[in-house]
């Protein structure tokens, strides 16, 4: 039951975060949004992490994986925010939800064997990405944005996959709060602080509520997902990845976004491939 509730909760929160980010990145730069998300996330989680004390299992290897997770998540979010600035939510969210496929691909490169049928699902996801970003000469400017958004989102999915792989190496050894806290601290120190010092962070009152929603939902969603994954990785991962469908539906009703039929077919292929692959791998 925890896996189902946690997975669905993560999907809802991540979907809300995606919708809020799609608005904030059109008001201020992705750099500004990311700096605030990292800083706010650190402030939210730090009291819980510090109150629980430094884990006994936190050694050099664990710290290296936490930093890897932090950097992958940091630059994955930057690419994801950049894609949402120029592209449609209904296109970007399904592609970034293929982070599980990215983790599977990285695991294969690292020498792990994947479950039977996983290769076919990776191929289906790749075809879906191509269909989702297909161009139409009748709308050249929009399609250039769709193409750029698809490239950014695909790169983000690979980086998120690396972050998931790194987090997966730690899930059984460290408390959830530390797996959430350290990557955000890395983001705040390695990105937010330098960007603020060189004057690249410019928040506006109009963007602030959207950024606040993104920050809270991103952290809470990850915490729920990790909690759910401890009870049932397969169910939590499949349900959590459905944030893409929720975000796409939300964008349709809230923002009036429209996708062409071939793009819809690509999005459906990605969602099916992600769900089946996650189940197979888990």
Mean pLDDT across all residues, rounded? 84
- Cα distance, first to last residue? 17 Å
Number of helices: 12
- Tell me the fraction of residues in β-strands, as a range: under 5%
Rg on CA atoms, Å: 18 Å
Got a strand count?
Answer: 0
Largest sheet, described in full?
none
Number of domain units = 1
Low-confidence stretches: none
Order of helices and strands: HHHHHHHHHHHH
Helix content, binned percent: over 70%
Structural class: mainly alpha
How would you summarize the topology of this molecule?
Layout: H1 2-24, H2 30-52, H3 60-86, H4 89-96, H5 99-109, H6 118-132, H7 140-168, H8 176-197, H9 208-231, H10 233-240, H11 243-255, H12 261-281
Helix pairs in contact: 1-9, 1-10, 1-11, 2-3, 2-8, 2-9, 3-7, 3-8, 4-7, 4-11, 4-12, 5-7, 5-12, 6-12, 9-10, 10-12
Q: Characteristics of this structure?
A:
282 residues, mainly alpha, 79% helix, 0% strand, globular
What does this structure look like?
The chain is mainly alpha-helical and 282 residues long. It has one domain. 79% of the residues lie in helices and 0% in strands. The chain contains twelve helices and no strands. Helix 4 packs antiparallel against helix 11, helix 4 packs parallel to helix 12 and helix 5 crosses helix 12. The chain is globular.
Quick description:
The protein is mostly helical and 282 residues long. 79% of the residues lie in helices and 0% in strands.
